[in-house]
Amino acid sequence: MRKTKRVTIKDIAELAGVSKATASLVLNGRSKELRVAEETRDRVLAIAKEHHYQPSIHARSLRDNRSHTIGLVVPEITNYGFAVFSHELETLCREAGVQLLISCSDENPGQETVVVNNMVARQVDGLIVASSMLNDADYQKLSEQMPVVLFDRHMNDSSLPLVITDSITPTAELVADIARQHPDEFYFLGGQPRLSPTRDRLEGFKQGVT
After folding, report:
1. Do 48 and 80 share a domain, yes or no?
2. pLDDT by residue (tens digit) across 15-66?
3. Range of the domain at 182
4. Is 69 helix (H, G, I), strand (E, B) or coil?
5. Which is an annotated Pfam family here (predicted)?
6. In this prediction, what percent of the chain has a pLDDT beyond 90?
7. Which residues pair with 73 in a beta bridge?
8. Per DSSP, what are the bridge partners of residue 100?
9. 163 vs 18: CA distance, rounded Å
10. Which residue from 102, 145, 109 is spatially nearest to 126, judged by alpha carbons?
């Protein structure tokens, strides 16, 4: 089967009768900034659309030394909270012209290390992680190379940027309300006790029943 030739900026420039530099300015959204004639801009864009021109991601990465990709590591994508978060973040990234690469750690520190290393090898521009690890030594070292943001759970005494919700207060309020209406004996069923969300919810439970 014959392979279809990829349309390049050089091809667009030749078809539009302009220099490669002018075509590049137009296709990179800099025509107004450098005063390319409106007629020329429209002609280049029309030809690019007609020939289904797509910019080379590799060339773009070489030009500005970025991959335009962000890595997201979550424990499990089937978890409703992580699924919603991943969807919303992917939407925001898409609108910003950034690719979101999502991997699951399965709440396994060893698996988490593997997926993070794979993302680093793919030269992501930054990482957002809901970590299953108990200390941030690896991420502290990694943060010297790229931005690293933790979310959903915190590690002991970590100085890395963190986005987290307050699990203690709403859990305490909910449990206190239930205890007032149904003062019978009831129990706390949580996740892995070593992870901060479970510890925070348990603390909220204790506060709610006292």
Report:
1. no
2. 999 998 898 888 877 777 778 888 999 999 999 888 888 776 665 655 666 7
3. 167-209
4. strand
5. Peripla_BP_1
6. 35
7. 103, 129
8. 70
9. 49
10. 145
Q: Are residues 86 and 157 in the same domain?
A: yes
Reference 13, options 4, 3, 25, 5; nearest CA is: 25
130-156 burial: b if 16+ Cβ within 10 Å, else e: bbbbeebebbeebbeeeebbbbbbbbe
State how far the alpha carbon of 19 is from the alpha carbons of 10, 22, 169, 202, in Å: 8, 5, 63, 66
Q: Tokens for 162, please give them.
A: 């963190």
Number of domains into which the chain is organized: 3
3-state SS, residue 57: helix
What number is the average pLDDT over the span 170-174?
Answer: 88
pLDDT for 132 beyond 90? no
**CATH number, position 127:** 3.40.50.2300
Tracing tokens 């943060």 back to the chain, one arrives at: 143
How far apart CA 173 and CA 90 sit, in angstroms, is 33
Please give the pLDDT value at position 1. 44
3-class DSSP state for residue 16?
helix
Nearest to 75 by CA among 85, 67, 65: 85
159 and 82 share one domain? yes
| Residue 196, token pair as written in the block | 């901060």
Burial grade of 203 (CB within 10 A; 0-12, 13-18, 19 or more):
middle
Find out whether 89 and 72 touch, Cβ atoms under 8 Å: yes
pLDDT at 187 over 80: yes
Residues in the chain: 210
Residue 4 in domain = no
